[in-house]
Amino acid sequence: GGTGPNDCEEGRQQQQPPLPERDPPLPGLSGEQRAAAPPRLAGLRWHPPPASGMAPVPRAPGRPAGSPRGSGLSIAAALCPLHGGLWRSGGRSPGPTMSDCSPARRKICRGRRRRMAAAGPVCKWPRTRLPVGGASALCVFVLCWLYIFPVYRLPDEKEVVQGVLQQGKAWRSNRTAVTGFRKQLEDCCDPGQLFAMTKQNSPLGKNLWFDGEFLHSVTIDNATYSLFPQATPFQLPLKKCSVVGNGGILKKSGCGRQIDQADFVMRCNLPPLSSEYSKDVGSKTQLVTANPSIIEKRFQNLLWSRKTFVDSVKVYNHSYIYMPAFSMKTGTEPSLRVYYTLEDFGANQTVLFANPNFLRDIGKFWKSKGIHAKRLSTGLFLVSAALGLCEEVTIYGFWPFSVDLHGRFISHHYYDNVLPDSGFHAMPEEFLQLWFLHKNGVLRMQLEQCEAPFLKSSA
């Protein structure tokens, strides 16, 4: 009645019969367990187990017999539902193997081999282990991605408009909040000292790292050093400052007179100030920014249109033209050309070069507060500088949405409807941060048509 070891050898050497379309009922399994058996997986072959009692391992077509599997648990083996469960460490199965060679046991083993051959597609995964270094690199990549592009939801335009309307026109300056925020800016960025390149903060021979160019720097030589003023050319602190953005919400706002009442007016990106706009945006300017890309596109890098450029900036009177000459390599040459052009023509404007250390620190400051963008907008840079340089700050034209507070469509700029490159700036995020400062009394944001504001001061 018993079986000897030769019977086991015959069982190992016996050629496996072709698999039926449906596996026969397995001994010892209930109806529910049979129904839960995995579907057939075409292409997998089963090989007899070794004499040591190791459980059978599925081998994908094309793998030579006897090829080494390596130590440890492979991904495919760990996920295949062998013997009704996951493989144990070392590859041993909790169920019987062909080494236990009673006829009943052999039937069970053959049935289980058929079940394994019909395992689900997950068993076709490559039989390689995930390297520890690769797993670590993948985790680092995912964490970095979530840091740069976090999963969060910004409110839509209607929610923002409702929040602004609920706030109403009443606004109160909070001197405690103003002082606290200015202290934060001084600790991180020191606008009073680092706003512009000067001989004091950028001595001869200093190695200057660009803030927008990875691992690129320039050494300040005699020619560059001579372009800097001795110190920041403003009498600090400035009193009342207006920072004027270019948002379409300024159109028909009638804010020109109120803007010009400030002691110091800052503007963005050489905006038009002709008579058709002056009623809404004013005409006074103490500082205006000029991105090198504007010099390239509008004035052909000053190669053939130097006089055109000089004539166009006369509208800014005796003002400073603030340029990021040391942010990107491509911006250095256009910025220097602007400086030499104004000097050659004896213009009333003076070029100030933005300090890349200041721009870099301001970017880190706002990123820590939740703004995630490739680069901050020029407007937010100017507002940040104003909050560090001025005692009172009012901002105009900062509205990145396509409708105003009354649901009427407005253009992107007060002078055109050209949209910025998508994904480069984070205008809605910036607006929400500025609106938060408005609600806390740090600055005042003008969004309605201008009237005599009802202002209160609190200690």
TrEMBL record:
Q: How does it sit in the membrane?
A: Single-pass type II membrane protein
| Positions of the UniProt region annotated as Disordered | 1-70
Q: Which CDD domains match?
A: GT29_ST8SIA1
Gene Ontology MF annotations: alpha-N-acetylneuraminate alpha-2,8-sialyltransferase activity
Q: In which pathway does it act?
A: Sphingolipid metabolism; Protein modification; protein glycosylation; Lipid metabolism; sphingolipid metabolism
* GO BP, one annotated term: oligosaccharide metabolic process
What family, per the record?
Answer: Belongs to the glycosyltransferase 29 family.
- What is the recorded name of this protein? Alpha-N-acetylneuraminide alpha-2,8-sialyltransferase
Please name the source species: Chelydra serpentina
Gene this protein is translated from = ST8SIA1
